[in-house]
Amino acid sequence: MGRPGLAHPAACGAGVAVAAEMTTSRLARAAGDGAGKQTRRTIWSGVLAGLGLAAFADETVFHQLLHWHHFYDKSTLAVGLVSDGLFHAGGFIAMVAGLFLLADTLRRGGFVPKRWWAALLLGAGGFQLYDGIVQHKLLGLHQIRYHVTLWPYDLTWNLIAVVLIAAGAALMTGRAGIAGSAMFRSDADTAA
Amino acid sequence: MLDLIPAALTLLADAGYGLASCRLSRRGHRWPRRRAACLLAGSLCVAVALLPPVASHDYLFPVHVVQHLLLGMAAPAFLALSAPVTLALRTLPRRMRRALLRGLHSPVITVLAAPATAVTLDLGGLYALYLTGLYQAAEGDSLIHAAVHLHMFLAGCLLSWALIGIDPVRRRPGTRMRLAALVIAAAGHDTLAKLMYAWTLPAGGGPATARQQGAGLMYYGGTAIDVALAVIVMTQWYLATGRALARSRRRPAAAEP
User: Fold this and answer.
1) Which of A24, A159, A177, B179 reaches 20 to 30 Å from B66, CA-CA?
2) In this complex, do B234 and A97 lie within 8 Å of one another by their Cβ atoms?
3) Alpha helices (runs of H) in A109-186, residue ranges in sequence order
């Protein structure tokens, strides 16, 4: 399943899609179609799990534990609630789908750890950036914290997103290091 | 009397299911126990939702939400996994089986079973119930009340069958389509719960705190059930691709002399 049907256009950011596309096509040329498909699946698994992880962390840490974010604040527009609903639902479904895709690539022996971690960082950073710029600022969904000077929080939030994306991009464009994945090799190698 | 009809129908359906699976086992075929267990769990959800103490207190909005989660989401999911249509097709006399198949393959059922229709009917019913005056009307009229419950249950069944159903239907949607439908259904449900919280709806839902408590319950309860649905969709995909993988690995070995 090349592209699972979670294609909210902003969900992973154009950058993630382009990076994934570039890497997979290069690897596909290098190692034949099967390996390319496995790498693509690894990357999708990482992106989906990263999205889910960021959404989950946001929900538990900021909403439930710290009570910084509010479930709803009075200034929210209906469009903000729709976006929030889509990301809340899309986030956990992405996490579930990503973990099952991970299990599948492990089962087939096609898991590429470095690409998976890269994709995880890109997915998490993409969500964080979307949350920080579009949801908090443009849609005014809710703020990071209330009754404080807001801009240091916003700056930190979005800087973390940028760092996550940069780290993911660096890992994604570096060497795949497939040889290092021996511990994840499964019976697929002996079968092939 | 109207209150006891759903419980009686559920008992009747369970008895039919039990008889059919016994008939199957007399013929030497085993009907999977987990399917029967799913039927019992689904029936239990229906019974808890529509019998006292839940049904007798559903004028309290949070209790109504529990009813909604059980009747419209949990029960249909369990029932879809119990594969009653498959059981019927395997045990009914030939003439009735043909009639059932004709019905299943009819354009009406094909359209109703499509994920887009199921999502629309399910979400449409909920938005109409909570954002318009329908909830208040149902509180005052037992017939509307019953109709709302029936629609909630049937639309939930359509959606559950489209998402995780294992009964044979024409054009079973693929995994991506089912995940997309689940995202839309879950997002629509979450958004509605937050709208209700924001606007202290539905009208007729009692004091504002009760309405907001109910909306929060709907949000988190719905999320829990939707996560379970996502796990089931992906488990079905994982098992199906696993079977295909095992077949493709067996094939070259079998070709050798």
Assistant:
1) B179
2) yes
3) 113-130, 151-173
| Residues of B whose CB is below 8 A from A5 | 176-177, 179-180, 183
| C-alpha angle B227-B229-B232 in degrees, rounded to nearest 5 | 115
Chains A & B: contacts with CB separation below 8 Å: 85
Which chain A residues are Cβ-neighbours of B183 within 8 angstroms? 5-6, 86, 89-90, 93
CA of residue A82 relative to chain centroid, distance: 20
pLDDT of residue B127 exceeding 80: yes
Asked if B190 reaches chain A (Cβ–Cβ under 8 Å), the answer is yes
Which residue ranges make up each domain of chain A? Answer: 13-182
**Residue labelled with tokens 């069944």:** B157
For residues B153 and B79, is the Cβ–Cβ distance under 8 A?
Answer: no
**Chain B contact present for A100, CB below 8 A:** yes
- Given a cut of 50, the residues of chain A with pLDDT beneath it are 1-18, 21-33, 179-192
| Two tokens, residue B2 | 């109207």
**Does A88 reach chain B within 8 Å, measured CB to CB?**
yes
Q: What percent of chain B has a predicted confidence (pLDDT) above 70?
A: 97
Cis? peptide before B202, omega within 30° of 0: yes
Tell me, what's the pLDDT at B177?
Answer: 93
CA gap A147, A136 in Å, rounded = 15
* A156-190 burial: b if 16+ Cβ within 10 Å, else e: ebbeebeebbebbbebbeeebebeebeeeeeebee
Q: Give this complex's ipTM.
A: 0.86
CB contact under 8 Å between B190 and A85, yes or no, is yes
